[in-house]
Every structure is written in C-alpha cells, then in structure tokens.
Amino acid sequence: MATTEKASRKASPRDRLLDAAARLSYEDGVGVGIEALCREAGVSKRSMYQLFDSKDAMLATSLERRIPLYEAQLAHPDPGSSTPRERILYVFDRLARASQDADYHGCPYLAVLVELKDPAHPASVVAREAKERLRARFHADAERGGARDPGLLARQLVLVFDGASARAGARVERLDDGLVTATVTALLDAAGVR
After folding, report:
1. What residues form the membrane-spanning segments (predicted)?
2. Of 193, 123, 180, 125, whose CA–CA distance to 154 is shortest?
3. Where are the alpha helices (DSSP H) in 43-107?
4. Where in the chain are all domains bearing CATH 1.10.10?
5. Are 98 and 107 spatial neighbours (Cβ–Cβ below 8 Å)?
6. Which of 9, 131, 160, 188 is the most exposed place for a label (fewest CB within 10 A)?
7. Measured between alpha carbons, how far is 189 from 147 in angstroms, rounded to an integer?
8. 10 pLDDT band (50/70/90 cuts)?
9. % pLDDT > 90, the chain
10. CA-to-CA distance for 92 and 158, rounded, in angstroms?
C-alpha cells in the first residue's frame, strides 16, 4: 500500500472530505457531485452532512484551508534579502513553472469565481479574499519598491496573473517562453519599481 494511501486512511473524515473537495473541484470544477466527493473521501453522505451544513460550506472551507499553501507557493524563498521587484517577479516565475505541470488548471480561486458567478456564495467569498490578499501583497511590494501608483500597479499585476493563469490553465497560452515575465517587467519599469 502506498504511503499516501496510509496517510489518507489516518486522516479524519473531515480532512478527507476537504482534500477530496480541493482535488475534485480543481480537476472537475465546483459542480462536482456530492456522491463523487464522498466516494473519493471514503465518507458517507450522512457523515458529510454531519460535518458540514452543505456542499457549499465544505467547498468554502476547503478553499480557505488551502490559502496558506497557495500563498507559500508564491512567496519568495528569501523575502528578507530580496527586493520588492524580485518578490513580484518571483510570483510570476512560480506561475510560469506551475503552468507547465500536466495537471495545471489555472488559479483555483479565479476558477471558483468564474464558475460560480454568485458573489454571495460562500466559496466566492473565500476566493475573493484570496485574490484580495494577492492584490494587497502586490500593493505592499509596489509601495516598498517606489511605484508611482502602487494601487494601480497592484491591480495590473493581479490582472496579468489571473489572465496568464486562466489562459495557461485552458492550454491556450504557454508561459514558459518569457511572455509573462516580459509583461510584468514592462509594468514594473513603467511604474518605477526598484
């Protein structure tokens, strides 16, 4: 038996459901059925409803639980000695590298917002918060880097990030040819970021 299977069996039913929701909603979309989620997690529907009020609540909790990992994947490995410009470019380098994985489907938070189209849905609320945190991170680095308009630059960077991740996730654009880095570099240069 594989180590991951053993670890999965040791995980609580709640954790297995949240892991299944993360995996299946990313691979198949938020419309994945409760039966598929429960089957993947090895948990009965009855147990699922004892743990979560609804599938929507489970999806929102799953997305919220992944925010620290999402942010860690985009964080520069040496934030103390890197410049704001290097930290911003690192985010896009990570995006370009991640987009080369065969199982890459774009930004999970953007996908939820696009699929649900309901700003009041619990998962949409969490997804918007994750995207807002990314914008705030860009804003802080833009400000530290001396951008003339850090707010505008942060919005532009999120726009490039979301557009690049969506196009790469849909397999209509490759990010390994330097396009995203060149685009972000032009924005940073135009904004005066050091």
Report:
1. none
2. 193
3. 45-51, 55-74, 84-98
4. 1-52
5. no
6. 9
7. 9
8. confident
9. 93
10. 10
CATH 1.10.357.10 residue ranges in the chain? Answer: 67-191
Mean pLDDT of 93-104: 96
**Is residue 34 within 8 Å of residue 48, measured between CB atoms?**
yes
Question: Which stretch of DSSP H or E encloses residue 132?
Answer: helix 122-144
Please give the CATH number for the structural domain made up of 1-52: 1.10.10
Q: What's the count of helices (H) and strands (E) in the chain, helices before strands?
A: 10, 0
- Spell out the residues 6+ positions from residue 43 whose beta carbon is closer than 8 angstroms to its own: 13, 16, 17
CA quadruple 164, 169, 170, 174: dihedral positive or negative?
positive
CATH 3.40.50.20, applies to 67-191: no
Give tens-digit pLDDT for 122-138: 999 999 999 999 999 99
Q: How many residues does the chain have?
A: 194
Q: How far, in Å, are 65, 137, 156, 168, 180 from residue 159 at the CA level? A: 24, 14, 5, 14, 11
